[in-house]
Structures are given as structure tokens and as C-alpha cells.
Amino acid sequence: MASRIIFRRLDGILLLDKPTGMSSNAALQIARRLYRAEKGGHTGSLDPLATGLLPLCFGEATKIAGLLLGSAKAYDAEVVLGQTTDTDDSDGSVLRERPVPPISAEALAAALAPLLGRIQQRAPIYSALKQGGEPLYVKARRGEAIEAPVREVQVHAIEVIDQQPTRLTLRVTCGSGTYIRSLARDLGETLGCGAHIAGLRRRWVDPFRNLPKVQY
Fold first, then answer.
1. 84-112 burial, b for 16+ CB within 10 Å, e for fewer?
2. Residue 2 has what pLDDT?
3. Helices (runs of H) and strands (runs of E) counted in the chain
4. Three-class SS of residue 202?
5. Are residues 77 and 158 part of one domain?
6. Residues 88 and 57 both lie in one domain
């Protein structure tokens, strides 16, 4: 018979490098069991597809989780052009394929410009945002018709790290509540070919920059 875990009071913040394929809540529960922490919470979900920094707060540190949730964040995103999916990432089903036109650096910069600053962004229907007390992704999995909410978000900067004919690597610095999947989707529509996220890594969350992270 498996031994019963005795939880204890533990205060502090763990900087986790979340692996791909794991939900943020699953990552939190693993850490709680490993450290036998009575109370814990994460500071903003990372999609299962995504990797990178996920600060986990335990004990008294959960009182500042809201501050971290609202802080600036930076991501590296791999964007595939020419395909849209129902989840706006590569975990979903392909909805449409379109040819990708030749895109110059100038045309790409012009397409990115409307995505900068304070913008109105439509969330993905597969997201943890709640509607009627239930996460949107639960409704989406049931096949319900969903009107995804539109919210104001802040995008501080988008840097093009690499540009290939059908693939982009973007570095995004943004405020809380920004969906990188939505940025990729909207960029694809502006370019006329559609797009989705194939990889996403959170580089930092203010004030935790250039600090070592724990890996599972």
C-alpha cells in the first residue's frame, strides 16, 4: 500500500521550467507532492504545448500570486503559416489550409504593427477563461457554439528572430492576459494565409529574469 503523504507548511516561490505536454495545474500538483506543501498556486497558466517559466507560489507566497499574474512576460513563439486550427496551435485539428504568399520583411513588419500596443484581442475558444462559470475549453470540447470574449491587452514588443517561407520565430513581450496563440492567428489572417502556434516558450515573468529554473 502506498504511504500517505503528510503535507507541511512551506513558504516560498519555485521557478519551474514547465515541460511540454503538461498542464500548469498538473505541474503544480507534482511540485506540491514533491515538497509536501499544504498550500500552493501558480501565477498564470501555460498551455500544455508550452514550455518555460512557471512560478509556483507556496504558503504565504500565494498572497503575491496576483501581482505576478499581472506582471509583464516574454515568449518565444514558433508560428506556422498556411494552416489554421481549432485550438490556434498544433495540438488542434486543422480547419483550413491556404497557400502562403511571398512575404517580405517589410510586409511582415506592416502586418505585425496592428498587433502592438493596447489592442483588442479575441481569446481562443480553447482557453481557461470562464463563461457562465465554466472554462471555455470545456464548452468547446462538448461542441458548443462559443462567442470567445474580446479583451484589451498590452503587447510591448514583437521581434522577428527568424523568417522562413512558411515559418516564423517571434519574440513577444506583453502584459497579462495576452494570448500568443491569438497573436499568431490574427497575424495569419492579416497575411491572408492563416497561422497557428507550433511551439511556445515563456522566457521570463517579471521580476524573475535570467534566474535558474527547476526542471522535472
1. bbebbbbbbeeeeeeebeebeeeebeebb
2. 58
3. 5, 13
4. strand
5. yes
6. no
Catalytic residues: 47
Say how many residues make up the chain.
Answer: 216
CA-to-CA separations, 58 to 10, 17, 62, 98, in angstroms, rounded: 6, 16, 6, 47
Cα distance between residue 122 and residue 127, in whole Å: 11
Q: What is the mean pLDDT of residues 110-117?
A: 98
Q: Which residue reads 498587433 in cell numbers?
A: 115
Domain that holds residue 58: 12-70+207-215
Amino acid present at 126: Y
Q: Rounded to an integer, what distance in angstroms lies between the CA atom of residue 11 and that of residue 3? A: 24
Whole-number Å distance between alpha carbons of 213 and 186? 32
pLDDT tens for 79-95 read 999 999 999 999 999 99
Please check whether residue 42 is in contact with residue 27, taking contact to mean a CB–CB distance below 8 angstroms: yes
Alpha-carbon distance of 71 to 7, in angstroms, equals 30
Asked if residue 86 and residue 27 are part of one domain, the reply reads no
Which distant-in-sequence residues (6+ apart) come within 8 Å of 189 by Cβ?
195
Please tell me the predicted confidence (pLDDT) of residue 45.
86
Cell of 113: 504593427
**Cβ atoms of residues 11 and 58 within 8 Å:** yes
Q: Report d(CA 35, CA 54) in Å as an integer.
A: 16
